[in-house]
Write a structure and sequence with these properties.
The chain has 274 residues and is of the alpha/beta class. The protein has helices at residues 51-59, 98-103, 113-126, 142-154, 172-189, 200-206, 237-251, 259-265, 269-272; strands spanning 7-20, 23-36, 40-44, 66-71, 74-75, 83-86, 160-164, 192-196, 209-214, 219-225. The protein has a domain at 1-39 and 49-76 and 194-274: 3-Layer(aba) Sandwich (Rossmann fold). The protein is built from nine helices and ten strands. The strands form two sheets. The chain has a six-stranded mixed β-sheet with strand order 6-7-8-3-9-10, with helices on both faces. The protein has a four-stranded antiparallel β-sheet with strand order 2-1-4-5, with helices on one face. Strand 1 and strand 2 (23-36) form a beta hairpin. The chain is globular. Bound molecules: adenosine-5'-triphosphate (ATP) and magnesium ion. Residues 51-52, 88, 164 line the site of magnesium ion. One of its GO terms (molecular function) is ATP hydrolysis activity. InterPro entries: AAA+_ATPase, ABC_transporter-like_ATP-bd, ABC_transporter-like_CS, ABC_transporter_ATP-bind, P-loop_NTPase.
């Protein structure tokens, strides 16, 4: 990353509260982060620490927050096609085919029908779903549906890509292929990326910087520069050390649980007895 490049995205003293039964929940506190043009930043942190909330604010879906979010120095003003998002759940429309769902990412693009079709075909191929372009979401596996959502987020070639656990539902091999593919896309398009992930290794493999969030309220605990050249070697000593370091940072907080256990964390204890 070029240290003197002006920030493309600026979070300045951002805070977020939700009204909940019995009062207010402080989801984000004093969040400050500058993301340079072309930079890849990953956010890791425990379940419920505010990661998706931050992405929702940046995509412009929620304007009720404290502080300031700037893009290219301008205050954020609703959603915009220069920002693409892949949500934590795939959010496909069940009555639209794979190709039609992906086409939704192009609604604001000035393309003729041939260019539009070409672009859709290109992104269907990118996520390896050539044989399923006419299929409907209920005919896909969870991982395939997530790949459609990734194609929809990328198809308009956004300048800023927001990814909320985009590969969480994929098997390990497809996940690694998608990570490689994401790096290749970034290389071609110099896309600025903000990725939320539970997977420390994924963050280390992809990002220029990793932001560790601390929960309740979500605050920045540490920002780690990842100065490893690409392609990164997952088996290397440097990679291993950084992974241990980040895991330590996360598990030092007793409220962090591995993803498989997160679903049960908030259940009453009686549930766990069965
Ligand atoms: N619409 C809402 N109303 C009330 N509280 C909310 C709302 N959305 C999120 N929250 C609360 O804000 C906090 C942060 O939620 P958020 O979804 O951002 O967490 P997260 O870091 O993305 O978690 P996960 O890793 O499980 O996806 C949680 O305590 C959650 O209960
Ligand atoms: Mg989330």
């Amino acid at each position: 990353m070029n240290a003197i490049a002006p920030a493309l995205v600026s979070f300045n003293q951002v805070g977020k509260h939700f009204a909940v039964a019995g009062g207010e929940l402080e989801a984000i506190r004093d969040f400050n982060l500058q993301i340079a043009d072309g930079e890849f930043v990953a956010i890791v942190g425990a379940s419920g620490c505010g990661k998706s909330t931050l992405l929702r604010l940046l995509i412009g879906l929620d304007n009720d927050y404290q502080g300031q979010i700037l893009i290219d120095g301008q205050p954020l003003n609703g959603i915009g096609s220069e920002r693409g998002i892949v949500f934590q759940e795939h959010r496909l429309f069940p009555w639209l085919s794979v190709a039609q769902n992906i086409a939704l990412g192009l609604v604001n693009e000035p393309l003729n029908s041939e260019q539009r079709q070409q672009r859709i075909d290109q992104y269907i191929a990118l996520v390896g779903l050539q044989d399923f372009s006419q299929a409907y979401p209920h005919q896909l596996s969870g991982g395939m549906a997530q790949r459609v959502a990734i194609a929809r987020g990328l198809v308009a070639s956004p300048r800023i890509l927001l990814l909320d656990e985009p590969f969480g539902a994929l098997d390990a091999l497809t996940r690694q292929q998608m990570q490689d593919e994401l790096l290749a896309i970034r290389e071609r398009a110099r896309i600025t990326t903000l990725l939320v992930t539970h997977d420390v290794e994924e963050a280390l493999f992809l990002a220029d910087r990793v932001v560790v969030l601390e929960p309740r309220p979500g605050r920045i605990k540490r920002i780690v520069d990842i100065d490893l050249a690409h392609p990164r070697q997952r088996a290397s000593y440097a990679f291993h050390r950084l992974r241990e370091d980040l895991l330590h940072e996360l598990t030092a907080d007793e409220r962090y649980l591995p993803p498989a256990l997160e679903q049960i964390r908030d259940l009453p204890l009686t549930y766990l007895a069965y």
